[in-house]
Amino acid sequence: MKRNVAIVGGGQTYHAARRHDVDQVEMVNEAVRRALDDAGMTIDEIDTVFLGNMEFFEGVHMTDCWLVHGTGAYGKPGLKITTGGTVGATTVCVGAHHIASGLFDKALCIGFEKQEEGDTGAILSGVAHPLWGRSLAGAAVGYFATMGSSYMATWGATEEHSAMVAVKARQNARKNPYAHLKLDITIEDALNSRMLSYPIRMLDMCPASNGACAMVLADEKTAKKRCKKPVWIRAMDTAHNEQFELDWRFVDTKRPIFSKVCAARMYKKLGVKKPAEYFDVFEVYEPATWAELIWYEDLGLCGPGEGFRLVEKGMTNIDGPIPVNPSGGVLSTNCIGASAMLRVWEAALQIRGDAGGHQVPKDVRRALTTGYGGTNWTVMTALSKTLDD
Amino acid sequence: MVQKEQEWISIPMTVDVPYRFAAGQYLTKYLVEMRDNGKIFAVKCPRCKRVQLPPRIVCAECHVKNEEWVELAQEGTLVAFTIMYLPLTDPTTGKPHEPPFVYGSVRLDGATSVLDHFVNVEPDMEKVWVGMRMRLVLRPKEQRTGDLSDILYYEPLPGQVRPK
User: Fold this and answer.
1) Which residues of A156-168 are buried (b: 16+ CB within 10 A; e: fewer)?
2) Of the candidates A59, A131, A147, which has its C-beta nearest B80's C-beta?
3) What is the mean pLDDT of chain B?
4) Which residues contact A7 (CB under 8 A, 6 or more apart)?
5) Per residue in A238-280, pLDDT tens?
6) Do A249 and B114 touch (CB under 8 A)?
7) Which of A263, A298, A313, B31 is most open to solvent, judged by the fewest CB atoms within 10 Å of its CB?
């Protein structure tokens, strides 16, 4: 990068299924105020504001304009970001690019979703091609269900492995005061939860959450002067996929698909040979249990078809050697426009040592996060504690 | 003093928006062949040779124009499926599909891509599996309208036994 960029502050709302006590502006402002407080800055010090959410989930377009008073963007430059499930990570990426380029020194990045105000399933069907498959668009659950059936048939995993991921996420969420689904559940509970779309049961799927996350990014000079615990953005990458070819259904594909391509480019930039050892913690975008298992494989934390073995052995537990989603992940909190940003923010909290009850019990110096969305694409962000890490 | 419970106002609203989408050069040819001749056509990339559905003007991976049209067999293999238990709304009609129902991804013989559609089997795990051989069933010719609903469903080829 032309200039180093650090995360110098951040904040999130408490995430919940119902937030009728606030409108969109009020909810976004909760996260913005927490982020500014955390950064020790006033809105006047912010050079530019980037806002991301999923277009039309709340029934309004141009939320960057509508929410100006809540975001603090009044009179400032900025952009609206709408890239589906990845939007929160893309928003961080855009903020970081603007600082790295030298155009601005301090950027406020915000992601939010107030899912209860609209019909997520109906709007998501608009992601499908109108004349090819939209009539069958089974919201997100149908796609992850076909992925699960393919994964089990190809690698010999069972519904129990999915349940293990479901339990890990919700037990981690119980340690995170901001998480939405803080459930004290067992494998049996997951296996006995209501079938939505075979093999996906209620507890194998993410909730529909309301919430927002905001982060303040700054250049190296500002970060070193103003922030006690800056977290450095070391690499970012985005990889798009081909519309119609939703490759995660074909889990043994040899094609260079988005997730593998993006990870390979990130590792090349950073000189990573063994990602499971190089990174101390991972925050991945897993709207369904099966997606987490596929992330293990596509990120190279294990070989193809071995993802379910990692969770079976407890390797990815909060106190395991490769902690994945100590926050509870998307399975516990999915306020879509904020979800991919929460991955980055939660990883930053881990590096700062500020994750509280869900802090990984080891020295955390490097973290990798993924976003995921739409017709299958990803945005990855790698963070570090110092510029030498 | 008795504290009155806090009231929050929220107002329901429905947005009903009609659209009309152009199928374009490639999808029109596909839909016309299926409607008028009962044939399924894909395009083959001159560089990577992937046989792609739906037919599209450019291969995304190679970024070259797809010009070779390939007729596909109407039999293939189920590579992924689900039994849907939710009454999901069909966005093209506004009406829900009656659950439970089965749908899946079938790779027709000769194709690289899959084509997703309903599978006409009982919604029972013992009756449907990955690897099952399928046949595409079209509507009778006089009922076809020139969209993807001209495909009724996939139907398992007879005489198959679920692998252990």
Assistant:
1) ebebebbbbbbbb
2) A147
3) 94
4) A215, A216, A217, A230, A231, A232, A233, A344, A345, A348, A383
5) 999 988 887 888 899 888 899 999 999 999 999 999 999 999 9
6) yes
7) A313
Give me the pLDDT at residue A69, please: 95
The CATH-assigned architecture of domain A5-120+208-226 is 3-Layer(aba) Sandwich (3.40)
Q: Is B150 on the interface with A (CB under 8 A)?
A: no
DSSP code at position B3: P
Residue A5 to residues A36, A96, A97, A223, Cα–Cα distance (Å): 17, 6, 9, 8
Which among B103, B114, B129 has CB closest to A136? B103
What values do phi and psi take at B96, rounded to 5?
-75, 150
> Do residue B88 and residue A243 have CB atoms under 8 angstroms apart?
no
Residues of B in contact with A294 (CB under 8 A): none
Contact A377, A238 (CB under 8 A): yes
Q: In sequence order, what DSSP letters do the residues of B63-82 get, joined into one string? A: --B--EEEEPPSEEEEEEEE
The β-bridge partners of B118 are B103
pLDDT attached to residue B164: 80
Across the interface, do A149 and B23 touch by the CB < 8 Å criterion? no
Tokens of A126: 């608009």
On whether the CB atoms of residues B113 and B60 are closer than 8 A, the answer is no
Within 10 A of B95 (CB to CB), how many other CB atoms are there?
9
Q: Where are the domains of chain A?
A: 5-120+208-226
Nearest CB partner across the interface for A196, out of B23, B86, B147: B86
Cα torsion A259, A296, A81, A349: sign:
negative
Which residue blocks in A281-328 are alpha helix, DSSP H?
289-298, 307-312
* Strand ranges across the sheet with B51-52: B51-52, B41-44, B68-71
pTM of the full predicted structure? 0.96
- Report the residue of A27, A120, A135 to disrupt the B interface, i.e. the one with the largest count of B CBs within 10 Å: A135
Tokens of A2: 């032309």
pLDDT above 80 for A27: yes
- The count of residues in chain A is 389
User: Min CA distance, B137 vs chain A (Å)?
Assistant: 16
Structure tokens at A122: 């109906």
